[in-house]
Design a protein that fits this description.
Number of helices: 12
Strand order of the largest sheet: 8-11-12-13-14-15-16-17
Helix content: 25-40%
Distance between the termini: 22 Å
Number of strands: 21
Strand content: 15-25%
Structural class: alpha/beta
Length: 472
Amino acid sequence: MNKIIRNGTIVTASETYQADILIKNGKIDTIGTALKDEGAEVIDAKGCYVFPGGVDPHTHLEMPFGGTVSKDDFETGTIAAAFGGTTSVIDFCLTEKGKPLSDAVKTWHAKSKDKSVIDYSFHLMISEINDKVLNELPEIIKNEGITSFKVFMAYKNVFQSDDETLYRTLLAAKDLGALVMVHAENGDVIEYLTKDALSKGQTEPIYHALTRPPEVEGEATGRAAQLTGLANSQLYVVHVSCKEAADKIAEARKKGYDVHGETCPQYLVLDQTYLEKPDFEGAKYVWSPPLREKWNQDALWNALRTGELQTIGSDQCSFDFRGQKDLGRDDFTKIPNGGPMIEDRFSILFSEGVLKGRISLNQFVDVTSTRSAKLFGIFPKKGTIAVGSDADIVIFNPEIKRTISASTHHMAVDYNAFEGMEVTGEPVSVLVRGEYIIHNKQFVGTPGSGRYMKRAKYGQLSKATDKTITIQ
């Protein structure tokens, strides 16, 4: 059924204006004033912002880690994402050394089949580089539209790759038109610091942070950026948590390197003291990189405001406090790394960013939606409100106040990292390709309705700008 959104304020990464939107066949057909379409459903967005659906470039749904599996799968995770205003996610497909990359992709397709309620795609982990891998990558790009590769610089003996693997991946990505993503921490130094802490009987959750100091993140970020410059390639640093790493990205960009940085809501509003909570509750806040001293928050907000960091991912990787996190009650290294972030990304960025004057309304749209869509090859189909774009739209009430709580969230996990935090602004209705997923704050979607997105090569869309909007 055709729909017309009336009376709302449309916000893109570059414009803020009032107009109506006519939706036909899942796409934005017309943007103008006093639009008419007999028989169309009218959505009254009076008093609301009309945002493009959020693009979350960093999720781990149903991911195996540390002898367990993250609690939210492609059904519960994407339902929670939709409640939070996210209409597209890009999840990480983990590979195994010695096995075809295509096997891993098939596994992730099986995980997501008939489950996702929003559109989705995959990044591909690169754990080794050899002729077999290099020969398979062009087919992965062609057949699957996977145009981003992830290399871990940490988790020694689990995910960590060496510098040769990273450098050769950067060289391959340059030729193939792919974006290389890095988890930037010095895994070798972390391994030493961790063993040293355990030998001294330092087993509490806080030592997760103390054995992964900001210096190891800054060093790895700088090293990855330097290798990117040497390879004349392109890099995306995930989950930047501290000033040291943000500064290295800024330095690289000033040199003209094609380097981009992502941070996450948890690093903007939570700090290292949460890991000191008594009765093992600090384990709820164990993820990597760890939370930092509070002063880093101002540095990260400033980096978003000035464009030194470009995107906001959730790094969604939820584990129950009881039954999963408590695997590490006597050894912090056995606490599954990750937290439940996917649902509150939009509201936290609006409430703490826009309303407190840290970023503008248009920057909010850029960092939560548009820039990721451009970098990862789905713009302007996703990430903007323009004629011809998918009608992925969020009707957002900027006045609603709510308190974040596990008792009301829609994730499958048994706690919320932002428990008790009051935010202002909430998605009221969310549409994916013109169909309601959330309607008046109620889930009305269907598991399996989300579509897999094949993505364009890096560089084809990354420098695109929003379409010019002509008011009719």
